[in-house]
Amino acid sequence: MKKIQSVRGMNDLLPEDSPCWQYLESTVSDLLSRYGYGEIRFPILEPTELFKRTIGEVTDIVEKEMYTFDDRNGDSVTLRPEGTAGCVRACEQHGLTYNQIQRLWYQGPMFRYERPQKGRLRQFHQIGAEVFGLNGPDIDAELISMTWRLWQQLGLTDVVTLQLNTLGTSESRGSYRDALVAYLEQRKDQLDEDSQRRLSSNPMRILDSKNADTQALLNDAPVLHDFLDDESLQHFDQLRGLLDAVGIPYEVNPRLVRGLDYYGKTVFEWVTSSLGAQGTVCAGGRYDGLVEQLGGRSTPAVGFAMGVERLVLLLDAAGVVPDSIARQVDVYLVAAGDVQAEALKLGEELRTHCSTLRVQNHCGGGNLKKQMKKANESGAIVALILGENEVASGEVAIKFLREDKQQQLVSVVEVANFLNHKIFNQ
Ligand code: ATP
Ligand code: MG
Questions:
Q1: Ligand lying nearest the CA atom of residue 277
Q2: E strands, 241-370, where?
Q3: Taking a C-beta distance cutoff of 8 angstroms, is the pair 233, 265 a contact?
Q4: What pLDDT, in 10s, does the model give residues 27-62?
Q5: 46 C-alpha to center of ligand 2: Å?
Q6: Cβ < 6 Å from ligand 1: which residues?
Q7: What is the 259 CA–ligand 2 centroid distance (Å)?
Q8: Cα separation, 126 vs 25, whole angstroms
Q9: Contacts of residue 25, Cβ cutoff 8 Å, sequence gap at least 6
């Protein structure tokens, strides 16, 4: 019978790869809680209308990337393509933004029907943060500092750079859009096909076209910043001042626009050149109009989302995941002969007294040679060998698996201490 395969673009995460994910996820969640962010969880499935109204009808996501279907009741539902819309919906539904400041974060799978390739999947994972109720550049700077600290902790500062731009208010952006369209209409035949289509639907997206000829054409096009309102420009200057003050390097990229309609004022992306075309690892910005657009009270908001798969690729390439995390077992307990009960008891005692160590009991029997082979394959640092002789003398043999050191006998009552202080230095 033909075996069933996973849906294209939707990956399994295997145990040998999960330590890197866990390392990233726990580093991020610790960091977010150190800045006072609370975790929010909301459904993977939402009413389709939510994404149409927030992300925008003529964006790539809504036009061609959403997993949308009717449920058994005939209601149109969509697998979330991103987290901001669901986060805002949840906050509004529970009154979280009413006269309150909220600093929130979320993580989980997102779904987009895209062409799968390295760093681009149909089920991918994001970790995101959103702040509601603050309109100054200080909170924009806080979010960016948080990501900067994360790259420092992960050892990735050398491979990512920050690109920054401001999109102004929707009115000022509107007058720029008109000027851009007027300029490009006259040169329409020189535009790539995608950009021609966007000229009437979403002209600002032409600015981040990957086509070299289109980019060249844009060199003489009107410049966004010349059209922006004073308040947005001042916000942007203040943000730059704050980033300079805390020493975060950035590049102003006047052509940085985001693929979703709801952004205004600050936008930013952390990009890398190590992942080919999938170069953005974290992206965000301000979206002051979104809460109101969903029927709430006018509430300033800003946030970002990072792509977990792309960060895992960077971590793997940089080889920065600590050994102690990549390793899944520290101590392997070998039970040679009729000593199963003693081995189980010893395993439990070690888990009680060596609480940070990962102890694996050998199960399934077999001779000493076979068990030692498993011990080696487990990645453990030491094997504890319990045989009938050891049980009789109240001892256990410690064999070092990763260094050339003499095997040693230790009394059973001492072994937890020995592991803690002599081998793992806890
Ligand atoms: P891109 O330009 O690469 O398509 P995007 O602008 O569509 O990205 P966002 O909607 O801003 O991406 O999502 C935030 C982050 O989520 C991206 O910077 C990226 O790291 C990650 N991401 C987005 N789409 C995918 C995908 N299909 N597969 C893997 N990661 C993704
Ligand atoms: Mg995209």
A1: 1
A2: 251-252, 264-271, 280-286, 301-307, 331-336, 359-361
A3: no
A4: 999 999 999 999 999 999 999 999 999 888 878 888
A5: 20
A6: 82, 112, 114, 119-121, 124, 126, 259, 278, 280-283, 305-307, 309-310
A7: 7
A8: 10
A9: 107, 127, 308
Q: Which residue bears the tokens 């991020």?
A: 28
Contact indicator for 28, 127 with CB cutoff of 8 Å = yes
Report yes or no: 277 and 300 within 8 Å, Cβ to Cβ. no
What residue owns the CA closest to ligand 1's atom 8? 280
pLDDT tens-place string over residues 329-342: 999 999 999 999 99
By most ligand atoms within 8 Å of CB, the mutation choice from 59, 126, 271, 312 for ligand 1 is: 126
245 C-alpha to center of ligand 2: Å?
32
Phi/psi region, residue 212 (left: phi>0; alpha: psi -120 to 50; beta: rest), is alpha
CA of 263 to the centre of ligand 1 (A): 15
What global pTM score does this model have? 0.91
Using CA positions, which residue lies closest to atom 20 of ligand 1? 307
SS (H, E, C) 132-182: ECCCCHHHHHHHHHHHHHHHHHHCCCCCCEEEEEECCCHHHHHHHHHHHHH
- Centre of ligand 1 to C-alpha 283, Å, is 8
Give the number of other Cβ atoms within 10 Å of residue 179's Cβ.
Answer: 16
Strand order in the sheet with 395-400: 359-361, 331-336, 382-387, 395-400, 408-411
